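Q: Start with the shorter request: fold the first protein.
A: Done. Sequence, then structure:
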Amino acid sequence: SRNRLEGLPRYVFNHMKNLKTLMLEENPWRCDCRLREFRSWYVGSTHRKSLSCTAPFGLKDAPWETVPEEDFGCMPQLEIYRDDATDIEDLGANITYRCVGYGDPEPEVVWDLNGKIVDQDNMMTENERVVKFD
């Protein structure tokens, strides 16, 4: 305990067959997707003390067993690209934007144009949408 651990992989103790005591309390646990599998293993184990989240803010001081597994997630990261071959000053020219979203759970990418959700049926490939605006 008190060794500044923020997360651990689930398998970290698999090879320690003779492990009798595991003291993990009073660590600054960051309850996100990197801790999810270890949390599930730990909550399901016997002879354990309750551990609490330090971060993110919304889970601060929450005991692991009271937080649903799916809430141990990571914030999505979005990258938006514009096709550099298109000069934005060419009135009437097509412009292609690509949005790649990463996260755990995987984020749903929704396009919003002037407060209106762009029709999700205008799909070319899994992560590419083509929409024509007049």
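Q: Next, the second protein, separately.
A: Sequence, then structure:
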Amino acid sequence: MGSIKIFFITIFSGLLIASGLSASNVEVTSSELINNAKEYDKKEVIYSGEVIGDIMKRDEHAWINISDGSNAIGVWIPFEETEKIGFTGQYKYKGDIVKITGIFNRACSEHGGDLDIHAKSIEIIERGYEIKRNINFYGLIAGIVLFIIAMSLSLVIYSKKL
């Protein structure tokens, strides 16, 4: 009786461990993808991060860049899926946080050997927003005063040389 119990525990533990080692359908970081590219190559992965830069339309697809804070990875996505994206990260905007499910390619033959993900789906996790930037009026006034002083000194030096 005890050996049967141990047998089933061993089998169950082995199945749990083996399912955890599969690269398919696991959420990964950009560092994991870059450092373990061979392991994840041609496998389905889940990758999350901020949409940054521009959406670059190419026929029925588009390129988007997703940054997880460490690196950015190019994602090849059906163009109609990009309509879900409200904001892309730029100076004035925080981009949408998305979850991409797709096939990882360490050297994509379709795209000149680039490392990329061919997305099957995109899910918006958090909407982006406009970043409000306040002007530092004290800094602005100090800059104007320093500019006037520098111009005055330049004129004095220039007039003495003539």
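Q: Describe the second briefly.
A: Residues 24-130 form a domain with the OB fold (Dihydrolipoamide Acetyltransferase, E2P) fold (CATH 2.40.50.140). The chain has a mean pLDDT of 88.
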